[in-house]
Amino acid sequence: MENKYLEELGKNAVAASRILSKMGTNPKNEGLKTVAEYLVKYQAEILEANRKDIDKAKENGMKESLVDRLTLTEDRIKGMAVGLEKLVALDDPIGEVVNMKKTPNDLKIGRKRVPLGVVGIIYEARPNVTADAFGLCFKTGNAVILKGGSDAIHSNTKIVEIIRKALEHTGAPVDAVALIESTDRETTKEFMTMREYVDVLIPRGSAGLIKATVENSKIPVIETGTGNCHVFVDESADIEMAAKIIENAKTQRIGVCNACESLVIHEKIIDKALPVIVDVLKKHNVEIRGDEKACSISGDIIPATEEDWGTEYLDYIISVKTVPDFDSAIQHINRYNTKHSESIITNNYNNSQRFLDEIDAAAVYVNASTRFTDGFEFGFGAEIGISTQKLHARGPMGLEALTTTKFIILGNGQIRN
Amino acid sequence: MENKYLEELGKNAVAASRILSKMGTNPKNEGLKTVAEYLVKYQAEILEANRKDIDKAKENGMKESLVDRLTLTEDRIKGMAVGLEKLVALDDPIGEVVNMKKTPNDLKIGRKRVPLGVVGIIYEARPNVTADAFGLCFKTGNAVILKGGSDAIHSNTKIVEIIRKALEHTGAPVDAVALIESTDRETTKEFMTMREYVDVLIPRGSAGLIKATVENSKIPVIETGTGNCHVFVDESADIEMAAKIIENAKTQRIGVCNACESLVIHEKIIDKALPVIVDVLKKHNVEIRGDEKACSISGDIIPATEEDWGTEYLDYIISVKTVPDFDSAIQHINRYNTKHSESIITNNYNNSQRFLDEIDAAAVYVNASTRFTDGFEFGFGAEIGISTQKLHARGPMGLEALTTTKFIILGNGQIRN
Questions:
Q1: What pLDDT was estimated at residue A100?
Q2: Tell me: the pLDDT tens digits for A92-126?
Q3: Can you tell me the distance from the alpha carbon of A385 to that of A362, in angstroms, rounded to the nearest whole number?
Q4: Which end of chain A is more exposed for a tag (fewer CB within 10 A), N or C?
Q5: Across the interface, do A415 and B369 touch by the CB < 8 Å criterion?
Q6: Closest CB to B413 among A200, A241, A364
Q7: pLDDT tier at A397, thresholds 50, 70, 90
Q8: Helix or strand or coil: residue A345?
Q9: Best of A409, A414, A417 to disrupt the B interface by mutation (most B CBs within 10 Å)?
């Protein structure tokens, strides 16, 4: 490699990953606990570093909401520590052996769960991701190389320094975590070519960041993505249930990838259902953009354009598409969705099964809110992101997504004929 | 996309994949049987097309061994048909639901196994891969776009034509398989950027082909790789067993990725073990290249260079590395291996466990030949290749490697708090 700094980081991470892969669960948990303690113990230093980032952000005229995401407080640092402590309680997936079977020639063949090795994470503003990503990787025996945003560079540098200090104290390899201290584009691009040292790259952040990573990376990427999620109100839907679910999926939290952005409605139920749904959404001041048929039902609906069907608003806006039949609903959703989360509200058995089979998405629901697509809600106890790609991991990713398996084969002298 | 021809192929493949994903197991099996019949029924046409490829290859002075790989015969076509019939007997992985659990709020959440969608396969000379790859993808409900080598273009075009004719006859979508008819570099490069239409790209062939795919593809790649496989003879090894396993792993078949290329031997057993092993290898005229210590034991060993430790010979050549202890063996192997298949010959319980834990490879053996790394030997009944990467699939890939899962969530009105 031309960039000696990155090469050094890579080599150190690989060396640390070898040690981490052999570490037992107890020492890994000790490491997590100590890091949690150190973050609180040294919070004054973290807050001071964070202050520098905030001052610079304000100088540069950063939007208030973004400054808020960048800001650390004692409570937020405590939150980072609690997050690490929660990982201690989770089962360690490493070392599990599954599907151990015997072949006709008496070889025993099974799959052993092992770390991926070195994980690269590219992220943007929020400095709490630094501790979070370290924790998930450490629990699963992976070394991690972090590339944060330039806005949070002082905070991230300090947090990583404290994590490494804590690791040194417990005797764990300090290179279990490293931060790329240069945040320019060239370094980031070169980081994405480090196949020799990095086993997987996970971008966390805006659609632009994810796109740039997917397009430039030579390292395998786990794509975490945007969510243009639909709720389809089928002909046989329970209208009250549909209204409650749409209210929840659209308004319980705005700006998240599993929020509902589009309502698809069967034309045989639209006269009865849509007014009820519009009433509920209007209570939350949701702007409703519909097709011609939808507009004809309610004066509260403004005309949608073609662009609306493909838009993830992340705002108090929803689109409404009328469909003449079940097949058209499937086609519309598969055409415009981002393969994230889709829900049908129905009492028709056959349609529920067809929806589950035919909708192409990471999470497909019957009679429930799309907002449940989340590692914690799914019972994983942790989440590194939500994958919208099909390879390796799909949907919410818990600890297991940071592992792979290797075949282990136990013989007593077998040779192949 | 600029290339309208490829865009059309991509769109048709996606449309076919939607239909395939809904097809039941019986119609898929009918399709496979009919294709098998048609390949035999139209073998005269296939042989005629193959003749053109062979004539051109000879004109261009192709090596005899490569011409042989390119050549189809009635027997080989029969072999292609039998391969498809064997897929009929295998369990269809699509539709299986695993880990269906109930959450505290009574959502039922499980994972349903579904096709990947559209698979791209880039391969080189052997035209039988055409039918083989189609069969694996079709059984798993995937459409496949094939990009074969220019040497086999007439054979591949004809085989795909006949497969499509058979599919049409059974009512299956003909675009379940398509061949990219242009074999120039530009088209191949553009094919690798078709993320919108192709879900995964699998290169099958030389190290150069695989490297080019990994480096240029914007589509997620499953890397199938080379094998610099080691057998480590530990201090406590059964010497007769070691000699038999090394003989098998080195000589049972030359030129395959799971053959042994390097012998690593503990210096405490070298005096007794190496002469026995050398005797066995010399019967097969294997050239043995060793380090200083190895050369001092046997006059049949010639000096190895640094380059030897990293070389996959695919020939009657083996390297011998002496190590002073177990740790050095682990280090040497992890440094030079290609993460394929590694074996230890030992009677030491602790060392057997450490080898399984610490060697970074797709398949790790105790007291058995590395030659077993193979989808058929592992009991999968089929093989699309052997993955040496860690994401999605690692080691021999059977039908399941061509699938993904989606979460299905069954509710009765649940909303998120």
A1: 95
A2: 999 999 999 999 999 999 999 999 999 999 998 78
A3: 13
A4: C
A5: yes
A6: A241
A7: very high
A8: strand
A9: A409
Percent of chain A with pLDDT over 90: 89
Asked if residue B94 lies in contact with residue B28, where contact means CB atoms within 8 angstroms, the answer is no
Q: Please report residues of A whose CB lies closer than 8 A to that of B395.
A: 406-407
Tell me whether strands A403-414 and A108-115 are parallel, antiparallel or unpaired: antiparallel
Non-local (6+) Cβ contacts of B165 within 8 A are B38, B42
pLDDT band at B364 (very low <50, low <70, confident <90, very high): very high
Residue reference for tokens 């598409």: A321
Name the residue ranges covered by the structural domains of chain B.
Answer: 4-223+394-410, 229-372
* ipTM of this predicted structure: 0.92
Task: Tell whether the model's pLDDT for residue B46 goes beyond 90.
Answer: yes
Q: Which of A257, A261, A252, A248 is nearest to A223 (CA)?
A: A257
Is B368 within 8 Å of A394 when comparing Cβ atoms? no
**Angle, CA B29 vertex, CA A354 and CA B85 arms, to 5°:** 155
Identical fold for domains B4-223+394-410 and B229-372, yes or no, is no
B292: tokens are 């200083």
Superfamily in which the B229-372 domain is placed by CATH: Aldehyde Dehydrogenase; Chain A, domain 2 (3.40.309.10)
pLDDT in tens, B245-272: 999 999 999 988 999 999 999 999 999 9
Give residue-wise pLDDT tens across range A301-353: 999 999 999 999 999 999 999 999 999 999 999 999 999 999 999 999 999 99
CATH code assigned to B4-223+394-410: 3.40.605.10
A349-A350-A355 Cα angle (round to 5): 100
Evaluate whether A123 touches A129 at the Cβ level (below 8 Å).
yes
Give how far the C-alpha of residue B345 lies from the chain's centroid of Cα atoms, to the nearest Å: 26
Taking an 8 Å cut-off on Cβ atoms, the answer to whether A378 and B116 are in contact is no
How far, in Å, are A353, B97, B403 from residue B406 at the CA level?
14, 9, 10
Distance CA A310, CA A307 (A): 6
